[in-house]
Amino acid sequence: MDMNLPKDPVMLLSYINTQLRDHYPSLTEFCRTFQVSEEEIKSKLAGIQYEYQEENNQFI
Known about the structure:
Layout: H1 9-22, H2 27-34, H3 38-46, E1 52-53, E2 58-59
Antiparallel strand pairs: 1-2
């Protein structure tokens, strides 16, 4: 995972949801910008029971 992203899953969740809300129209765009795998992000956050909801553009 990118060195600039939080390592802790809860902090990562907060960071990504804020970025999605404020700057990115989709998880795909976020991952492209940060050069990280969408599946890696989804997997890490699934570990704390969060799934990406495309229609809301956030992890819930």
